[in-house]
Structures are given as C-alpha cells and as structure tokens.
Amino acid sequence: MSFLQLSNQGALAVITINRPPANAMSYALIVELDGLFDKIANDPDTRVVVIHGEGRFFSAGADIKEFTQVETEKQMHDQTMAVHKIFRKIETFEKPVIAAIHGAALGGGLELAMSCHIRYVASNAKLGLPELNLGLIPGYGGTQRLPSHVGLAKAAEMMFTSESLTGEEAVQWGLANAHFPEEELKASVLQKAQKIAEKSPLALKSAIDLLRLGDTPNLKETLEAEAEHFAACFKTEDAKEGIAAFVEKRKPVFKGK
Ligand SMILES: C/C=C/C(=O)SCCNC(=O)CCNC(=O)[C@H](O)C(C)(C)COP(=O)(O)OP(=O)(O)OC[C@H]1O[C@@H](n2cnc3c(N)ncnc32)[C@H](O)[C@@H]1OP(=O)(O)O
Question: Does the keyword Protein biosynthesis apply (predicted)?
C-alpha cells in the first residue's frame, strides 16, 4: 500500500503525504519515503524536492496507534535508528528539500520537516513536539534539531509543555523560513522551489555540503543517544499510559514508573 505520491513538475519533484485522517507516519510510510528519495537521487531531471501533506495536516507525527504493536525496547530502538538514517539522508540530500507545512507538523511530522533544508508554513499551522504528552520524548531527531533552530530555552519549553507554535511564531523563532496564508502556501512554495531549481545543481550540492559541515559535529552519537532514551522511555509504564490515554481520548496520569 502506498502512502506517498510523487509528482514530477518540470525540475520539481513533489512528494505528497497521503495517509488519512492525519498523515500519521507509520514505519512503512517512512520506509516508502526512503525509497522515493533514492529514486529522486537518480533522476537527473529533478533539481528540487517539495514535501507536503494531503488533507488537513502536513503530518500529526509518528503513528501512535502503531506504537502499541511494538513489543520490545530493542525493536523500538532499531526502528528509531532506521528512521534517523532516513531523515539524515534527507538532511544531507544533494538536491534542496523543502517542507510545505499546513495544518499541523507535530512530533515526527515536525522532525521530518526539520530534516528538510527549508520550511515554509501556513500562518495558522501548528508546529510542535508533543511527545511528552505520551510519556515519550521526541525520538526522530527533535531533541537535537529543535534547539539548533529556536535555542535551548525555547526548545526545552516546547518539549516540556508540549505547546506548539503557530506558523507565524515559527518564523519569528527561526524554525520556519516564511509564512503564507494557507490557501497561498502551495503556489508560493512552488514559486520559491522553481527559483531554486534555476540555480546550478552543482553549486547547490556544494552549498548543501558546506551548510552541513557546520552541523553538530557529533550528531551521529547524539542521535544514537536519543534513540536509546526514546526506546527506554517506550518501555515504561508511563509511556503505556500515555499511548493508551491518546487512543482512549483521555488525559494521561503519569506515575514516574
Ligand atoms: C518519535 C516520534 C514520536 C511521535 O511523533 S508521537 C506523535 C506526536 N504527535 C502527536 O502527539 C499529535 C497527536 N494528534 C493531535 O494532537 C491531534 O490529533 C491533531 C492536533 C493532529 C488533530 O486534532 P483534531 O483536529 O482534534 O483531530 P483528532 O480527532 O484528534 O484526530 C483525527 C484522527 O487522527 C488520529 N490521529 C491524530 N494524530 C495521530 C497520530 N500521531 N497517530 C495516530 N493517529 C493519529 C486521531 O486518533 C483521530 O482518529 P479517529 O478519528 O479514528 O479518532
């Protein structure tokens, strides 16, 4: 079953996330995304990639309901490391990757968007990392990438409170590049993408390589640490409670166990 559509529009490759009702990212969806990036890497006609969501949201994050089927800490750890590898592939992709965010980019949805080179947002979109609501932590790179955009204090506040930013606030905090009224978002992003596509692909690749040279030098190790913490949180009673509370649409009661 396919959860993504790839549409080639001249030099642009547009990836549409299409998994109703909330574009929650199952593991299969993320693996499918990996395959699409391999395909786009080998397509000399594509110069810029745009990712956006069909329906009400960009993505509401990892599929919380699917988490109930993950049995062991090791399984969660291995799966999380695989997601890290895929998101890192996007972050270091040799063609510019732009996220066009409307509705919501929460949890893994925002973590995917933060792996893109540029984020354009609808002014009324919600961007946040609400994993602590579930007794979890952001596990798809968010603990490492969010502070690099908004600073440590704001990242701490966003994670601890699970409060999201509007698209407009996300621009003020440096998490997104620009905001547009939702109805103008897609056309505005395609226009920006087209402008980028007219640059030399060789110079773009160099610019991406050099931007990434300034990355956290030990990102590989810190992402490994994040995956370990994520899997360790996952096996706690609190995470079981948080996930169950989401499914049952009630407030969780965390006991520190
Ligand atoms: C390492 C990474 C970890 C993670 O990413 S963990 C997930 C982090 N994300 C979240 O915690 C976001 C959870 N979702 C929400 O907060 C809300 O939803 C929204 C703000 C996205 C939308 O709210 P509203 O407009 O009131 O719609 P609705 O009735 O809550 O959701 C519509 C349907 O979508 C399902 N859904 C939403 N998010 C997820 C998700 N992340 N995983 C699985 N299902 C999700 C709901 O359950 C429901 O479904 P039904 O209609 O069957 O009741």
Answer: no
- Is the per-residue pLDDT at 150 higher than 90? yes
Give catalytic status of residue 131 as yes or no. Answer: yes
Instruction: State the DSSP code for 175.
Output: S
Distance CA 94, CA 89 (A): 9
Residue 214's pLDDT is what?
Answer: 77
pLDDT by residue (tens digit) across 171-180?
A: 999 999 999 9
Residue from 36, 1, 4 nearest 18 by CA:
4
Q: What is the pTM of this model?
A: 0.98
Interatomic CA distance for residues 70 and 235, integer angstroms: 10
Q: Is 97 in the pocket of ligand 1 (CB under 6 A)?
A: no
Instruction: Say which DSSP state 22 is in.
Output: T
What is the pairing mode between strands 48-53 and 97-101?
A: parallel
Ligand 1 mutation pick, 80, 84, 106, 140, max ligand atoms within 8 A of CB: 106
